[in-house]
What we know:
By secondary structure, the protein is α/β, with parallel strands linked by helices. The chain has 14 helices and seven strands.
Amino acid sequence: MWIPTTHNSEAGMTYSLAQPRQHDTEPPGYIMVIDDNREAGAALAALLELSSHTVDYVTDGLTALDAIKRHQPDLIILDVQLPGMDGYAICDVLKHGPATWQIPIIMVTVEGQRAARLQGFAAGADAYLQKPVDMQELDVRIRSLLRSKRRTDQLEQAEAVIFALARTVEAKDAYTEGHLQRLALYSVAIGERLGLGADDLNALRFGALLHDVGKVGVDELIIRKGGPLTPAEYRLMQQHTLIGERIVQPLRMAAAVGPIVRHHHERWDGRGYPDGLSRDSIPLGARIVAVADAFDAMTTTRPYNRVLSLAEAAERLRNGAGIFWDPAVVATFLEWLSTAEG
């Protein structure tokens, strides 16, 4: 599609003849233009509509924020100089909002100074263009950001499905109600005491919540069985770690979460499954979840064991450290547990 030449000297915006779009098969987006210069904003909106985008044009930040609450755009083109709240403040609000942080924002301004650009990026802008805006560059930026946004949306949908599967697995067994939340609490507490960073702690929480998601592929009669499993049943149950690893692959944090899901049944002495890893070759996240999982199994009602007191469970963890579990992780957890009890 050819974009017509337009010039607006007052707004400092020049729309030059762009090359034909190379990716006309890509779906257009719903774009919001926020600019208090009515002539410039309306001209930009009209040009974007020529590229088949749906466009809302708004002249001030507060009106825009209210409109975004009602109907989120796929992308925002935001002028810096606005009445009331300037573009930096609006960008900051949106990027810190749990429901709006993922919306791509392109900031535009007549200011070309380095400090202005840095301020825009500090507010969370995904791109920063100076007036007069080159429409060909803007078109490329829009297509790139919309493509990234669609990938993110697809990943979020996949994550929602995966977490729904995890809740389904938990719901299959009345004895494990609340197990995932407790496991996440214990695991993150251990991670914090071991000094893990925010990203690792988040992956650890996800890994704890999803550690048994692979049981969705295991016969429900085996999962609900009250007594010991036969060797054949046990081999089938072991497959849940491999099934789970495959299920979590669409996650954005799959590289960090997958090893937790796969290896949370490995043992410190190398006699666990599925790969017989031992000691430090077992991913740290899996070692942490293994301890938390064992403690929760000991201290909650299960069909195959009696509920232990906290003191009894702690003693079993100490006795199994260096055999089943990482001794350092066990010590860290018990230290936290004694503090939490107090």
